[in-house]
Amino acid sequence: MKETYRFQHKHILGIEQLSVKDIFHILDTAISFKEISSRPIKKVPTLKGKTIINFFFEPSTRTRLSFEIAAKRMSADTFNIAASTSSAQKGETLIDTACNLEAMNPDIIIIRHGSSGAPGLLTRHVDAAIINAGDGTHEHPSQALLDLMTVREHKGTIEGLKIAIVGDIAHSRVAHSNILGFTKLGAEVNVAGPATFMPPYLDSLGAQVCDSVAEAVTDADVVMALRIQKERQEDPLIPSLREYAQFYGINHFLLQKHARPDVLIMHPGPINRGVEMNPDVADGKGSVILEQVTNGVAVRMALLYLVMGQEGSRAEA
Amino acid sequence: MITILQNGRLIDPVTGVDETGDLWIKDGFIIPAQEKIPENSQYFDLQGKWIVPGLIDMHVHLREPGEEYKETVESGTRAAAAGGFTAVACMPNTIPVNDCASVTQLILAAAESKGYAKVYPVGAISKGSQGTGLAEYGELKAAGAVAVTDDGLPVLDSQLMRRAMEYAGSHELLLMSHSEEIALSRNGSMNEGVVSTRLGLRGIPVAAEAIMVYREIALAELTGQRTHIAHVSTAAATELIAQAKARGVQITAETTPHYFTLTEEAVGDYNTNAKMNPPLRTEEDRQAIRKGLQDGTFDAIATDHAPHSVIEKELEFDQAANGIIGLETSLPLSLGLVRDGVIDAMRMVELMSSSPARILKVDGGTLAVGTAADVTVIDPDKEFVFTKESILSKGKNSPFIDWTLQGKAVLTIMDGRITHNELS
């Protein structure tokens, strides 16, 4: 019997809601779009006439730009709203602001928000497709998808790989989405960092907590370091960046001693050089940090296309 | 006029009565049953129903004065009567805070003119519940307050709490503790555990409650004053209270229907109607709470009825206000404990009426002849769907909306006056 797969999601809220098939479909779609970005004329008419709003409540350079470039390469009209210019500061609620945007009939709202679950809240109040560009300490699905795409391009597969994620797991939506994504596709995810950076019951997400960075990176196919988020340091989590770098920073010596020789080095950016990762590692052999950025555009083109495809087929029906 | 409740199951934990019989009410008091039924008497046949002392909820937020858009003394006591309550104790975190005689008098005046239940105001521990300096307990007591608490906030200064216990003792006021170590719970919006990790929400660990409950026990031991622990949510705190009671510390404790019914799983997909402080905990905690209700660790079931409007609840989860309403669901959920065999009917009435009366040192909690006729008639079998439209509280913030519940107050009588009637 022939099974026909269709991408069913109107919204992209997290990796949690995506099946293995969904993830592969997104990655395959992204690969087919990647070539567009290397053409002399980097534009296809796929989303011509669609209105896409970038609704960012937290500062962001690369994610916002990546979504905007993705949208423009698909010929959509894009608009950016930052928290500092929105009504948030006038005391308007998220739902009120979103309903006002909705009244202008956007097709997609891409939201970044400091509160976990905020994108899901929007889906209950507006008709536009919602794409989560990072919510609180919950998920950052497009980042995990571009990471999966990058690793898959290099290793051919995700299944059976050993992935090490080092840093502030508790406050990282990137880590959360990556743990879910890599384990869904059959990789083993080992995490390391001081206990102050580990959320409770991390094993319930599928990750294994290691006692040391050395243990986490042992035989690793991929090592991902997370940015130490200075802006979220209201808690006494670490004594100093200096000590952190000494005990948890990724350096060349550590990798040479413990990781596989063909280990891929990843970072969601922006890097604190010399803190979570030494420059010799960030710029060295195996670093795919800039490829992650390139693939980010392709993955986001795929997400925009797929959520609109769902919309289009609904409109036809 | 005489009101006769006939053929019901009379349950009175104070006298130990549990038998089928009649209850006679005249001029607001319970009177002995007589041979001859007088003319003009009001008569209810209550076969299959329970006749119990009016239920008393020792922990509600009526929001008046200051937040009347959330609840008023009138709307809150209307909801209380519908839930089978004849009396409620209202927390002082109004605007302004009930830290003085004039606010207490204002609440009592509203209850007197518009109330459907007796209202026992609870004053603040500290001035403005700011955590520095004692409120004027003597004047609060004289105005009608029955207890003091800074509920909603813990008293962080241990010396202030010590003095509050001592001074409350001097004025024969109960001290109720909101036990929370803020340094551990700050910015948290649900239980710290599997679900908080899945949802990316900052957690409130069990230790935030346990640490402060232990401090209150230590201070109650030091001062020798009776102290009441409000809204216990954890197995750890339950264990601490059981141990303290075993060695004779004058401590009492309440828990709520949501802690013995729900777990952190109810937060689900960021449901702000499952957000309260302390938060819903794990199944292990829920079981410990149920056991504590059974073995006497808990003295009372209270609701922590906390009405909010959609303005406070239709928000991002971490921005939404804490608290849920409870007056109209407390009885059916507590009857669930009886059906599950956790407690018997007598124990339930003790937890919801006799024991709160004893702790607050107020009238009620018994069907004894000569006492005020505060009586609740319960149909333990009546099934109903708890719909949003049926809610009488101004707050619609309940995680139990659209649940099918079993057991309901069908007649509520306060001082002989019918405040709720589903019978005729």
Characterization of the model:
The complex is a heterodimer of chains A (317) and B (424). Chain A is α/β, with parallel strands linked by helices and 317 residues long. Chain A has eleven helices and nine strands. In chain A, the strands form two sheets. In chain A, strands 7-6-5-8-9 form a five-stranded parallel sheet. In chain A, helix 1 packs across helix 11. The longest helix of chain A has 28 residues. Chain B has 13 helices and 18 strands. The model of chain B has no long low-confidence stretch (mean pLDDT 97). In chain B, strands 1, 2, 3, 4, 5, 16, 17 and 18 form an eight-stranded mixed sheet that branches. An eight-stranded parallel sheet of chain B has the order 6-7-8-9-10-13-14-15. Chain B has a two-stranded parallel sheet with strand order 11-12. The radius of gyration of chain B is 20 Å and the shape is globular. Chain B is 31% helix and 23% strand. In chain B, helix 4 crosses helix 7, helix 7 packs parallel to helix 8 and helix 8 packs parallel to helix 10. Chain B is of the alpha/beta class and 424 residues long. Chains A and B meet through helix 4 of A and helix 6 of B.
